Amino acid sequence: MKSFKIANFSIGLWSLVFVLFAFGCSQMDDPDFLDQLEIPERVDFIKGSPYGDINSRVIISEAEVCGESSQTCLLAGKTIEVGNVEVYNDEDYVYITASTEGTDWYFFESHLKFSETAQGLGTGKNPAPGKFPYKESYDPALQVVTYQFEIEDVPNTFYWAFHAVVLRLNEETGEVLQSESAWGCGPRFVNKGSWATYSGPFTIQECEEDEIEEIDDECYKEETGWAGTNSGAGNAWWYYFDTEGDAIQPIFAGNKNIDGTVEWDGVNLIIDLGSMLLQDVNEPVKVQGYDILPTKRPAAGLFTTYKGEELSIEGDGSRYYAIHLDLLVPIECPEEE
After folding, report:
1. Most confident of the ranges 57-66, 73-82, 248-257
2. Backbone torsions φ then ψ of 13, nearest 5 degrees
């Protein structure tokens, strides 16, 4: 009898060990990043949408965004709304942008996964964001981050899971006041256990065909223009004006060299549209000065050096200028049917 009890106890003990081991393995599929990461007491940070930073938000003009974007909230610590996640596309790229602008929260790390189906994200089990195929860390900490993919590399309709480690900062000292995991809002991966969520679906939006405008018996189509001889960095096309280069530099409309130019006279940027016209929109001329060039196409909607419709703009002392123009480019009028 005694040996029988010992045998039973041994079996129970090994069963308990097995259960604890299995429980530990399941937890390893859903790591607590706040326990694993070494969060410093203070961090450097850039508030808002940083111009020129490699992780700055990609913002494209409304004319270039195709159809409608999809936006969902960003929750930290399960209940704290700290920002949003937006998905949108133009003709060439799909963008997934997360923002905490307007708050004192900042991104320390981010992780992203997308799939044609929710099941492809791994629904039904705790996700492991550290194993997501796309990940970034941020030093300094940022408030806006963007993942950009060539449109042919993304399913036409897809779901996505965006996870981040976010820090609440004292914006005077950079002291870390709070750190949390954050997920883009949506359904939970599992009903019990991890509160991790995923989002979607998003369907890549069709781009509208160019509208033709007829003005004084001449026909025009809308194009985005950038001025300058030098091609800017990043996947999306843009140009910039270097004041230490040629005094007169071209305007590119729809990534094609048209007959317009911009001249630097040492004080002013003087725009000559040639055969082109400005679109009848709010602030068709946008200019931003830089001492350090952006590493991606900058956000014309956030330019601060100048916004308006004047064609002579005073410089602000910068060496480089991004000059964004909403243009009407002349084309042959279609034959009437």
Report:
1. 73-82
2. -65, -45
Whether 319 and 184 map to the same domain: the answer is no
Residue 140: asked if its preceding bond is cis (omega within 30°), the reply is yes
Instruction: Kindly give the pairing relationship between strand 199-203 and strand 144-150.
Output: unpaired
Indicate the residue among 178, 203, 228 that finishes a domain.
203
Number of domains in the chain: 2
Residue 302 has pLDDT above 90, yes or no: no
Contact 313, 204 (CB under 8 A): no
310 vs 6, more confident: 310
274: left (phi over 0), alpha (psi -120 to 50) or beta: left
Which pair of structure tokens corresponds to residue 101?
Answer: 């602008």
Residues 6+ apart with CB under 8 A from 69: 86, 87, 88
Q: Tell me the percentage of the chain whose pLDDT exceeds 70.
A: 84
- Domain-embedded: residue 337: no
The tokens for 118 are 């929710």
For residue 25, the one-letter residue type is: C
Pull the structure tokens for residue 249.
């530099």
pTM of the model: 0.66
Phi-psi region of 2 (alpha: psi -120 to 50; beta: other; left: phi over 0): alpha
